[in-house]
Amino acid sequence: MPIAQTFARFANQLRDGDIPQSVRERARYLILDAVGIALASTQYEFAHRTLSAASEFGDGDSDVIGFGVRLALRDAVLINGLLVHGLDYDDTHTRGVIHATASCFPCALGVAAASKLSGRELVTSYVIGVEVAARLGSVAKGGFHQTGFHPTGLIGTFACTLIAGRLRGLNERQLAMAQGIALSLASGSLEFLQDGAWTKRIHPGWAGAAGITAAALARNGFIGPKAVYEGRFGLFNSHLGALAEQCDYSLATEGLGETWEVSAVAVKPLPACHFTHACADSAIFLHHEHDFDPRDIVAVRALVPAEVIKTVCEPLANKRKPQNSYDAQFSIPYAVASGLVRGRFGLAELEPESIADPIVLEVANKVAYEADPASAFPKYYSGEVVVTLRDGRELRHREHVNRGASDRPLSASDIISKYLENASMAVSEARAKQILETVLALDDIKANEFSRNLGGRV
Fold this sequence. Notes:
Elements: H1 3-13, H2 21-41, H3 45-55, E1 59-63, E2 70-71, H4 73-85, E3 92-93, H5 100-114, H6 119-140, H7 143-146, H8 151-167, H9 172-182, H10 199-219, H11 235-240, E4 265-266, H12 277-289, E5 297-304, H13 309-312, H14 316-320, H15 325-329, H16 332-342, H17 352-355, H18 358-364, E6 367-371, E7 383-389, E8 394-399, H19 412-423, H20 429-440, H21 447-454
Parallel strand pairs: 5-6
Antiparallel strand pairs: 1-2, 3-4, 5-7, 7-8
Helix pairs in contact: 1-8, 1-9, 2-4, 2-19, 3-4, 4-5, 4-10, 5-6, 5-8, 5-10, 5-21, 6-8, 8-9, 8-10, 9-10, 12-16, 16-18, 19-20
């Protein structure tokens, strides 16, 4: 059976009760994390400029998180995806190397609310999307990043197609056809890495809008190809080139409906590309564990997985001197330098004055990278930092299992603390707690009530 057909059957036949309660609870906490980030993003220029652009297409009936405005469904999903992903603080499925929640939650929220469905069905469709996205990403074994594609936007389109199709009542045949249509709508380039451009931020929302479009076309009888993933010009062959030979197609459907990848999604403790976290935490550890003056640092070596070098280490001159916050979030030299100099790496370290700190930049200029021979990528995003000081000392620390990974997860209380910290940037403490209670009770309320609440229309 083609992979698309298997996914179609899964999306069509899965029932709310088929998902273990522990998985549903984890899904609600992942959604809570996403909501907090979305609220924080409303305080940044990129969000306001994107909202201004989307507003040119007119008003609608779908809520934009935190802004108190309504747009047409696809435009609201576009903005909400950008809000969740815009600070690069959103969760990651480690093996799939994909930010699945950033596309799946806004799509499920928008379509479930527009269709006047329950919050329970919203959660179920979100789980379906994450399961599909995680598995498709896993098939490629990190290959999309090597060929210049961003799997969050690319793969997210197929997950959102199944979410929208499920919520719109498509049958199994239509769900399979919709994935074929999505093959021509999916996109996401990594060219932003060269100069810190904003384009990556919009990938998850675009995946949601494209998925809704594909589902609508299939529902109305539009014909798409069948060999969506395995075909001669299917997803993997067309986007991976020679690397398609390393794909393990069995990972797409292995354990589907039995092993829940939602439980393997890692919540970020730091607001930066997940590939930087182990090295950033190693540098932070060295700062607090040892007494040294950053000006006495002679050299720094960062050991990173070979598969992530193109993303967070190259071109080295650019990474050593980031031009903006997005540049900094994808820079091993900056993340390591910030940790060594300041002993932290949070949203404050992404403000212009922090990025321009001459002491941090001096240390960043001394950071070199090497492929980590002991890397556990993609199961873990391992990292190690080795610092050579003027007095001859060599300091080193390794984070083999990155903080937040499935074997070292953030707890529910950790996620709540992160949510409250992010949400407090945009709303009062009382309002943040009210939204928190609503998210954790999502299985028991209506999706449109939940959407109005997030949009500020209580």
